[in-house]
Design goal:
320 residues, alpha/beta, Rossmann fold, GMP Synthetase, Chain A, domain 3, 2 domains, 6-stranded mixed β-sheet, 11 strands, globular, binds guanosine-5'-triphosphate, binds magnesium ion
Length: 320
């Protein structure tokens, strides 16, 4: 059996379950997940090694999670859509993932247009089938609608949350990918450095703890990340756009910031496998989402180029 490999772009509207699928397939939490749309802001690589087994295809699948396809109305939104386009470029296969409980909308049509223009073969993944329960019949008319609009190589019902249908998905994915090299070392699971994942973990806690405009107007920048033998010292700044948002993020007597900080610290400790000292600061940067320059500065891939040679900035490998 030959070795198959390739890049698979996970494309979908906000909230479809792209990041949940990435995490489920790789078996590690690489991307943050929340019930709020537009959680993911960068493209995120998840590397999946499928070992040799008798009679089965084996290889390496490089998955790319992307921000949800939407009509951007800020520099941040435009940057997010640029990330989607970069992920689409040169990939071998697209997983178009849709929420199977929802009917087609105008935004889905726009997304199908992007898919068509890419000229790349695609699988349609009908996600969240666990929510359909006894109403699986509802799936068929929605499938048909999509089928009319694009020639999908496969249509697969899945539940990313419950990991239903993922074995079939992987099998078909490997079969659809060409013979090729191992693009990443066998034990690497993502290209993201721990430093960036740390910022994301903090942002996830903000998404979970706050509501309305606050999560959207917030971003996290790591100012200090010093890994010692037994303790990692981290300082991060939470940027928001207005004084009122800062007041919410800090909370009464600093309670909110404390809650975000301790929940994030536990997750970071789990990821790094060591104790963490985490300091959080909240700063107001009026309308940062409109600032192209500021949005560009947040891009960790750019930061990586600037700080190249810094060991803490390499992609994570398996922890166990
Ligand atoms: N019931 C159910 N919920 C799911 C499933 N997959 C994802 N979800 C939920 O849907 C919500 C959105 O999931 P995400 O994985 O963050 O979705 P996303 O497509 O990455 O969203 P953006 O990053 O905002 O574009 C979360 O609350 C998930 O727990 C599923 O198979 N079943
Ligand atoms: Mg996501």
């Amino acid at each position: 059996m030959p070795f198959h490999s390739g890049f698979v772009c996970i494309l979908g509207r906000p909230n479809a379950g792209k990041s949940t699928l990435l995490n489920a397939l790789v078996g590690e939490k690489l991307a943050i997940v929340s019930p709020k749309p537009q959680t993911t802001r960068n493209r995120i690589l998840g590397i999946l090694e499928i070992p040799k087994r008798k009679g089965n295809a084996y290889g390496q699948v490089v998955l790319i999670d992307t921000p949800g396809v939407h009509r951007p109305d800020s520099s941040l939104g435009r940057k997010m859509m640029a990330e989607v386009h970069e992920a689409l470029e040169g990939c071998n296969l697209i997983f178009l993932i849709v929420d199977a409980t929802r009917k087609l909308e105008q935004g889905d049509q726009f997304m199908l247009g992007m898919l068509k223009r890419s000229g790349t073969p695609a699988f349609l993944l009908m996600n969240k089938i666990d929510l359909l329960r006894g109403e699986k019949g509802k799936l068929l008319p929605i499938m048909d609608e999509y089928r009319k609009l694009n020639d999908f190589q496969e249509i697969i019902p899945i539940s990313a949350r419950r990991r239903d249908g993922l074995d079939v998905l992987l099998e078909k994915t490997l079969a659809a990918l060409p013979q090729g090299p191992r693009y990443f070392p066998e034990d690497q699971i993502t290209d993201q450095p721990a430093r960036f994942m740390t910022a994301e973990i903090i942002r996830e806690q903000i998404l979970l703890a706050t509501s309305e405009e606050v999560p959207y107007a917030t971003t996290v920048a790591i100012e200090q990340f010093e890994e010692g033998a037994r303790l990692t010292q981290i300082a991060a700044v939470i940027y928001c756009e207005r004084q009122g948002q800062k007041a919410i993020l800090v909370g009464k007597r600093g309670q909110m910031l404390k809650k975000i900080g301790s929940a994030a610290r536990l997750q970071i400790e789990k990821m790094l496998g060591m104790r963490v000292f985490l300091e959080l600061f909240v700063k107001v940067h009026p309308n940062w989402r409109e600032s192209r320059q500021f949005v560009e500065e947040l891009d960790w891939r750019r930061e990586l180029q600037r700080l190249v040679g810094n060991a803490e900035l390499y992609g994570l490998t398996k922890t166990n």
